[in-house]
Design brief:
The complex is a heterodimer. By secondary structure, chain A is an all-alpha fold. Chain A is built from seven helices and no strands. By secondary structure, chain B is an all-alpha fold. Chain B contains eight helices and no strands. In chain B, helix 3 runs antiparallel to helix 5 and helix 5 runs antiparallel to helix 8. The chains are: A mainly alpha, B mainly alpha.
């Protein structure tokens, strides 16, 4: 049986947690009180401190970790359950951030575009990403041997990752309603200035820290739930075993009285 | 690998020819989808004609899911998958073979559906090459993605409910691009329709290639 190596939470996890809360608080303070409203969009532009950062985490960080983890798991030389669990944690956190991306985008789209939802290429491909991630999570929940499940999930995560470049390039391939890159456009021209830029950069840092923290927590949950599963198996095996011994004893005694 | 693929495709198609599940269950289902969606839209010929390409591709997608489930079910008998695995056939060959068999079935299915929309919705395809190109490209992609996701869900007790959830979002680009290309092929000139083939081409390349590479690891996992 595995030794309970994870019974205590690592210190750095708490540090990351505290840092992410602090940086989020600073983003809220700067975003709501310090930065001025936008010339064109007024207070609506404050969603700029949430939506791009959340979308970046959902798409690149979560998608990248999930794809890299799955590749490293499928590669025979680096095949350990570490990569499988990391990739699963990334998809799960990624699903939350994809949903947040859609919600925050929708909140902004209603006043600016006049609709909650539109069949824009980037919106649609992001919605597909969320559905694919939910499919992955459904597959993940199907009980199986850890190695079998890991392999299935690694393949599935790679297939989910195909959608990531589609979301990324959607604004260039199909020029629809959603604007192209926010801070930098493909020609590397800076669009946002002053305190707004700093607040935005801070928001990227804050949500990245939140991502790292959630990823590590979910990774621990994966490890712990596997351990619990192993232990339950041990317990029920020993229960069946003792039942068998008991039954054998009863039938032996019965044979004794019959004789 | 190619010889193995031919063997596996031949086996799947022979089983299909004898059991006739695809013929008597999947094909009627596809036509049923056409009719049900026509009911939902109503008898107005103009709106039916307008919706015809979308209805056609929805029917193709739903029937693909059924055909994939059938393709997985062929190997779900006692020890069948192990037998195939132990026969020394290259996993990539198994994938390509199963995909080829599925593609052949899907082509027949699309011919029937083409006739179906022509008769029921009174539409005429004017730019034939565009419609044919869209259907062929979509078939390759659908078969590749279908067999790959079928393998992903094979051997699971929840296979039948899980597969549609996994595969339909992936097939969504086919629905989109296929419908648009068909919409264009119904008008007198191709117009922007050819542009939608650019979505179908990568789709038809990515999934067969990904499947040939990833089928091996999946087989070991099953």
């Amino acid at each position: 049986m595995n030794a309970p190596v994870t019974s205590t939470r690592p210190r750095w996890l708490d540090v990351v947690g505290v840092l992410s809360v602090l940086s989020l608080a600073a983003t809220v303070w700067l975003g709501l009180w310090v930065t001025p409203p936008d010339v064109v969009q007024g207070n609506l532009a404050r969603l700029l401190y949430v939506h791009p950062a959340v979308a970046t985490v959902a798409l690149y960080w979560a998608g990248g970790v999930a794809a890299a983890g799955s590749l490293l798991y499928l590669w025979p030389r680096t095949r350990t359950l570490f990569w499988d669990r990391l990739s699963a944690a990334a998809v799960e956190v990624g699903a939350v951030f994809s949903a947040l991306t859609l919600v925050t985008g929708s909140l902004w789209g209603r006043p600016v575009w006049g609709v909650w939802w539109t069949w824009d290429a980037r919106l649609t491909s992001t919605a597909l990403l969320l559905l694919l991630e939910l499919g992955y999570l459904a597959l993940r929940r199907v009980p199986a041997d850890p190695a079998v499940r890991a392999r299935r999930c690694a393949v599935m995560a790679l297939l989910v990752a195909i959608d990531v470049p589609i979301v990324h390039f959607s604004v260039q391939w199909w020029q629809t309603l959603h604007q192209t890159g926010t801070i930098l456009d493909p020609g590397f021209q800076l669009h946002v200035h002053g305190s707004m830029l700093w607040t935005m950069l801070l928001s990227f840092l804050a949500f990245t820290l939140v991502f790292v923290w959630l990823l590590a927590v979910r990774y621990r949950v994966e490890v712990l739930s596997d351990e619990v599963g192993d232990e339950e198996l041990e317990v029920s095996l020993s229960e069946r075993w003792s039942e068998g011994v008991e039954l054998a004893g009863v039938s032996a005694a019965r044979r004794g009285t019959d004789a | 690998m190619w010889r193995d693929a031919l063997l596996v495709a031949g086996k799947d198609l022979r089983i299909e020819a004898r059991s006739r599940v695809a013929l008597w269950q999947v094909l009627p289902f596809a036509v049923l989808v056409l009719i049900l969606l026509a009911f939902a839209i109503g008898p107005d010929p103009t709106s039916l004609r307008h919706a015809a390409p979308g209805i056609l591709w929805i029917a193709v997608l739903f029937s693909t899911v059924l055909a994939v489930q059938r393709s997985v079910a062929i190997e779900s008998g006692e020890g069948t998958r192990d037998g195939l695995r132990l026969s020394g056939i290259d996993p990539g060959g198994i994938f390509l073979g199963k995909a080829a068999a599925l593609a052949a079935e899907l082509l027949v299915l699309q011919l029937v559906l083409w006739a179906g929309v022509t008769l029921l919705f009174d539409v005429r395809v004017h730019v034939v090459w565009l419609a044919v190109a869209a259907s062929l490209l979509a078939t390759v992609g659908l078969a590749g993605a279908g067999v790959l996701y079928g393998a992903l869900s094979a051997g699971l007790r929840v296979r039948d409910t899980l597969l549609p959830l996994l595969v339909l979002p992936v097939l969504a680009p086919v629905l989109l691009a296929g419908s648009k290309a068909w919409q264009a092929s119904l008008s007198t000139s191709a117009g922007s329709g050819a542009g939608w083939l650019r979505i179908l081409i990568p789709f038809a390349v990515i999934y067969p290639v990904a499947g040939t590479v990833l089928y091996g690891p999946l087989q070991e996992a099953a």
